[in-house]
Amino acid sequence: MDEYQELISVLPLKTVEYAFAYGSGAIQQKDENKAEKMVDFVVVTNNAQEFHKDNIAKNPQHYSLLRLMGPKMIEKIQCNFAARVYYNTHVNVGKRKIKYGVISYENAKQDLLDWRWIYICGRLHKPVLDVIKPKDDMCDLVTENRRSALHSALLLLPESFTLKQLFHKIVGLSYTGDFRMIVGEDKNKIEKIVEGNYEELLRVYEPLMNDDARLSVMTPAKVIQDGSTTAIYHRLNLLPSEVLNRIQRNMNKAQKRQRDAEEVIFSLAHRHDVAKTVETAIGGIIRPISFSQTAKNAFSAGVTRSIIYSLAKMSKFLKSK
């Protein structure tokens, strides 16, 4: 942990509410060497413009030529497009390289609670390293996000399954519909995360599973959930608002009817395509965001860093095929 705190200490931290490290440079994945990887961070700030102002003054080399437009414009680029995250990548700190995304507290809250973009919230479905500890309100948002991930994953599973199957579904949620899983990402990424982090996933999700009266963990090889219509209806109602909005829109469009959310969810709970409907809704949120945020990252990184980053991703993708 000390190494990661030292890496992030190069940033101005007075406006930072929460910072975590994620990805294969921070979290162990099967058959991967963390020490060789670039370390990915997310920084949640209560004042994006002030953060960028201080950071440009302290670390101008972290930014592309966009820094010349000033912190106010960078805040606008961050807070008005794609997943509301502004990334600086391939930053040298000592012997390591880091990449860090900056998001405002309000945008982080919106993603964690509502799954508005399923970007930051998706990273927090999985184990992360809390480099700057979250305050109580942020802790609650992270827990609620993970509870939503559990409900979503359970809706994608049959009545009986294993813990490993559950963790596969949870980890895989944020990759649903992501074009990078077709070209650009390691094909075995989900498996590597689950295999390398099984105990940590258990630590994160066991308390939430224990709180769920409709779920019974008999053994790691046998988990049983209530598959009744009432239980499915209950879980559907607990999905984040953006997912419910997508379900309502998709079902009304398919059936050429206009029904309110409650009627749509009640109807879906009685059908046999719940998993497919939920997965389609989640993918419908992620797909356009994965395109737009990737384009935004390339724009903010600048041409040279974007090419280097893309080549590294493509190399991992080809090795995994």
From TrEMBL:
Main location: mitochondrion
Swiss-Prot/TrEMBL catalytic activity: a 1,2-diacyl-sn-glycero-3-phosphate + CTP + H(+) = a CDP-1,2-diacyl-sn-glycerol + diphosphate
InterPro entries given in the database record: Tam41
EC number: 2.7.7.41
Pathway: Lipid metabolism; Phospholipid metabolism; CDP-diacylglycerol biosynthesis; CDP-diacylglycerol from sn-glycerol 3-phosphate: step 3/3
GO annotation terms (biological process): cardiolipin biosynthetic process; CDP-diacylglycerol biosynthetic process
Subcellular location: Mitochondrion inner membrane
A GO term from the CC aspect: mitochondrial inner membrane
GO molecular function: phosphatidate cytidylyltransferase activity
Cofactor: Mg(2+)
Keywords: Lipid biosynthesis, Lipid metabolism, Magnesium, Membrane, Mitochondrion, Mitochondrion inner membrane, Nucleotidyltransferase, Phospholipid biosynthesis, Phospholipid metabolism, Transferase
Known role: Catalyzes the conversion of phosphatidic acid (PA) to CDP-diacylglycerol (CDP-DAG), an essential intermediate in the synthesis of phosphatidylglycerol, cardiolipin and phosphatidylinositol.
UniProt protein name: Phosphatidate cytidylyltransferase, mitochondrial
